[in-house]
Amino acid sequence: DASLTEVNSFSPSVPISPSSMINQYKFEDAPELRDLFITVDDPESHVTAIETFITYRVVTKTTRGEFDSSEYEVRRRYQDFLWLKSKLEEAHPTLIIPPLPEKFIVKGMVERFSDEFIETRRKALHKFLNRIADHPTLTFNEDFKIFLTAQAWELSSHKKQGPGLLSRMGQTVRAVASSVRGAVKNRPETFTEMNNYMETFSQKINLLDKIAHRIYKEERDYLNEMKEYGPVHTLWSASEEGVADSLKGVAGCLDRCCRATEKRMAALAEHLLPILHEYVLYSEILMGVLRRRDQIQGELDSKVDALANKKTENDLFSEEIGKLEDKVERANNALKADWDRWKQNMQWDMRSTFTNVAENNLRYYEE
Amino acid sequence: MEDCLAKKMEITVSEAEKRTGRNAMNIQETYTAYLIETRAVESQSEGPCAPVESLWRRYSEFELLRNYLSVTYPHIVVPPLPEKRADFVWHKLSADNMDPDFVERRRIGLESFLLRVASHPVLCQDKIFYAFLMQESGWKEMVNETGFQLKADSRLKALNATFRVKNPDKRFTELKHYSDELQSVISHLLRVRARVADRLYGVYKVHGNYGRVFSEWSAIEKEMGDGLQSAGHHMDVYAASIDDILEEEEHYADQLKEYLFYAEALRAVCRKHELMQYDLEMAAQDLTSKKQQCEELATGTVRTFSLKGMTSKLFGQETPEQREAKIKVLEEQIQEGEEQLKSKNLEGRDFVKSAWADIERFKEQKNHDLKEALISYAVMQISMCKKGIQVWTNAKECFSKM
């Protein structure tokens, strides 16, 4: 109970203390303490004069006080998810926002409305919302709440509010400018380490993703050849007398092998491939987060430089600087905490995924 | 099989050596020679071991031996030689005759050939075969002196020639169909197996990439590092294991190939029967027509149209003396023909009897060998799975420690 209230009163202006961080971990590991349950299902196709699109049903069950009801059911389309993600990024530039499934996979040559594609996307969207729900900060984000609860027209009108396109563009311009100005100086050691880590990690995870896909392909090719192998033996048994039973036996075994291979492949597609893909996206996100942190720091640094040069209007400036310093501090801490959390998660994910792969292989060989 | 050579003598093809020499056309060539070692087996295990005798032979000499045996014992299903050129290869296997793995598998095949001949109740007693094992020089001349090449019916060489046989032994016709089916199905199986092996190789080898990337990744991880590193090691082990597995499978493929070629030998026996039957029927036909002619001349009636009959009608009858002479010649021919037919019939029946006996022996051998081969294949697969289980159990442990 105590841990819950502590988290509930969490506000961005207070740097996180180690003890509350531990509580956050517990918050994730113990699903009984969860008070927000989200499912994404039931994809439906909608046809209008202009376009065809898919909506997904988002069901939310919660015991939280700030929610008016305990159950919500809304329909959302991919665009809405994109909107949510960008709002979260805006509000928390140095927090790690979970990845969304890509818009349209051209490489995989998957039909935009194929069942496979829709199902993969649905699963990814489900994961996306749940990761947000599990995040100690993001879960209380106002836009998130609106996303989960608002009716379609409410959401559209809410979307239209908020900083307009121009101000958003302004932000981007400033961001680019500051990054060009070399925001890398004054970067605390921790973040340089993170950057280096992310570069290598990103490389490796991309490789793993490719390898896993390659294995999947090789297995499929293997399966195709194996499908012929059993029948050949059955054919042979037709012309034999003494050996016919043995041959039929072998044919039966080979067919079982085929089925076991199919199971293995399905497990790969279900568990390993999506996770690897998610972390490929994550690595991109993290690089982005690190860049944004650098930007914020860059802002601070430039103001500090300006102060050093001007030496006038100390009070105003130092207040501004103070604010910026806070901002940087917050950003840094948020990132650090989130980073650790992310790594924990990643570790756990990788562990369970690969263990799963191992188990599947064991099952395969045992069969 | 009480007196067969295999029981009295140990035969092995123990080594293979690359050699260069000049061939019949005086052109330099490289070939492989195989060492045949023989040793008499003492009936008591206590007795001193007899000395090992040995000589070198090359593949072409084995071929000569086999050709001799096929011609000399047409009713026997003669064991086949291992393939001349590597066939049914999957991509990692070389098709080169000089490749050491191919040479090794051929060595085993040649040994198997010799052992099969030595265990055959009829073939093992052949003197040329014995000389092949014991006498290095002058053997070729000895074989050629038997004049077996003259006996070889050139008609058999025309593989697709069909003989219109009216009354073949039904069993042989069925057998021929069977041998065709066997050839076709084993070829098909070997092709599919080669493709499956190729793909399996791919699956295993790509896992090796895991090993490399895990190892690189572990360098940047703290808690996960050890787990990743050791898991990567297991992936490497997994990827490497496929080489041995597939090599073992090649031996299984060779066992199947032997029966692919045996099907050919079986077919040859059937065709020899066909040929004999054809000759028999031709001879019988010839005899019948001669008898008819004789009758016509004797009675003066023309039952069937013949040019001679017509011409004699047109150009005048023959004299009685001429007719008598003709009849006499025909009667002699008929006599000869009847004797020939009798002996041919006898030959044919003997052939069918002894051939069928050998075919029954062959069928039993085939069933036994194929069963064993399939069992060994299953054992191989089980062993492969056990290895897989071991690797992935280890990997799982490493992963869970991450």
From TrEMBL, chain A:
Indicate the segments annotated as coiled coil, or none if absent.
307-334
A molecular-function term among this protein's GO annotations: phosphatidylinositol binding
The record's InterPro entries line, in alphabetical order, gives: AH/BAR_dom_sf, PX_dom, PX_dom_sf, PX_SNX7
Query: Keywords of this protein's UniProt record, alphabetized?
Result: Coiled coil, Protein transport, Transport
Cellular component terms per the entry's GO annotation: early endosome; phagophore assembly site
Q: SUPFAM superfamilies attached here? A: PX domain
Query: Could you tell me which Pfam families the record lists for this protein?
Result: PX (PF00787)
- The answer, when asked if Heme is one of the entry's keywords, is no
Residue ranges occupied by any PX domain in the UniProt entry? 34-155
Q: Name one GO biological process term.
A: protein transport
Q: Give a yes or no for keyword Transcription in this entry.
A: no
Question: Its family?
Answer: Belongs to the sorting nexin family.
Name by which UniProt lists this protein:
SNX7 protein
Tell me what organism the protein belongs to. Answer: Elachura formosa
Upper classification of the source organism reads: Eukaryota, Metazoa, Chordata, Craniata, Vertebrata
TrEMBL record, chain B:
Q: Kindly indicate whether the keyword Cell inner membrane belongs to this entry.
A: no
Q: Which UniProt keywords apply?
A: Protein transport, Transport
Which domain of life does the protein's organism represent?
Eukaryota
Q: What SMART domains does the annotation carry? A: PX
Q: Which GO terms describe its biological process?
A: positive regulation of autophagosome assembly; protein transport
Give the UniProt entry's GO cellular component terms: early endosome membrane; plasma membrane; SNARE complex
- GO MF terms, alphabetically ordered: phosphatidylinositol-3-phosphate binding
The family line of this record is: Belongs to the sorting nexin family.
Q: What is this protein called?
A: SNX4 protein
Q: Which organism is it from?
A: Elachura formosa (spotted wren-babbler)
What high-level taxonomic lineage is stated for the organism?
Eukaryota, Metazoa, Chordata, Craniata, Vertebrata
